[in-house]
Amino acid sequence: MQTYWTEFCLLFSMNLLNLVSPGAGFAVIVRNSAVGSCRIGLLTGLGIVASSFLHKSYTFLGFGLLISQNEMLFTFVKYAGCIHLAYLGLKCLWEGLGKKEELPRCTLPVPGRGATPSLKGYQGFRMGFLTDLLNPQASLCFMSLVAATVSPATPLKVQLFYGFILLGTSVIWYSCVALFFSSSKLQKYFLSLRRIFESMMGGSMLYLSFRLLSLSTKAG
Q1: Which among 217, 178, 66, 77 is positioned nearest to 134, based on CA atoms?
Q2: φ/ψ (deg, to 5) at 78
Q3: Is residue 2 situated within a structural domain?
Q4: pLDDT at 102 over 60
Q5: What total number of domains does the chain contain?
Q6: 174 within domain boundaries
Q7: pLDDT at 192 > cutoff 50
Q8: Tens of pLDDT along 10-55?
Q9: Does residue 126 belong to any structural domain of this protein?
Q10: How many beta carbons lie within 10 A of that of residue 98, not counting itself?
């Protein structure tokens, strides 16, 4: 039991550092929370967690090696992820640099009014899910963490317990991010600087797209 506790603490701490490091998922949640609402941000985060559940499941079951060792499959997923991130980046840049009248308006929730965010709940969930799912770096990074911290002799049920704790941590973290960036004060401030913010998010996502393009299967 002491061995399991030690490797879990090591895996948890390393995964936590990776979780809070800004990446594509973090950028999408921040953008959707600020543009839409806390609910949209939370659903975006749940989309990422749903994808993360798939990554963690096949990693603990041993299928994660298929992606890292199959160059054709890895290449397909990598380019699909690049296209998706580039699409999100260009979309943000279009909204940030477009003409004023073409910029989609975000209606803030106002007490006593039925304000509707510019994004729908399912759109936020889908955006978060695809952003994480089409990012082989997320899978390869987690496989590396597991390989470095979890013994092959650890029972599968114990490893699955590790995975559920890590998923719970992700839910808490992404919920906090969505709550913070969807506050009314931050939203009002964001609207005054929306063009700059959208342009920065677009540039960041395009950078992440090119960074993902440079990955190789050796990263695992």
Answers
A1: 77
A2: -65, -45
A3: no
A4: no
A5: 1
A6: yes
A7: yes
A8: 889 878 877 877 777 888 888 888 877 888 999 999 999 999 898 8
A9: yes
A10: 13
Q: How far apart are CA 39 and CA 36, in angstroms?
A: 8
CB 89 within 8 A of CB 202: yes
- Helical axes 71-97 vs 121-133, angle rounded to 10°: 140
Q: Is residue 9 part of a domain?
A: no
Domain holding 104, by residue range, is 25-219
Q: How far apart (Å, rounded) are the C-alpha atoms in residues 130 and 145?
A: 22
The predicted structure's pLDDT at residue 81: 66
Residue 48 pLDDT: 93
Q: What share of the chain is helix, strand, coil (3-state, %, to 5)?
A: 80, 0, 20
pLDDT at residue 165 greater than cutoff 90: yes
Which residue shows structure tokens 């209606």? 107
Question: String of b and e for 160-184 (b: at least 16 CB within 10 Å)?
Answer: eebbeebbebbeebbbebbeebbee
Which amino acid, 41? G
CA atoms of 58 and 129, how far apart (whole Å): 16
Under DSSP, the state recorded for 108 is: P
Question: pLDDT tens for residues 167-181?
Answer: 999 999 999 988 888
Q: Where are the alpha helices (DSSP H) in 36-102?
A: 38-60, 64-69, 71-97
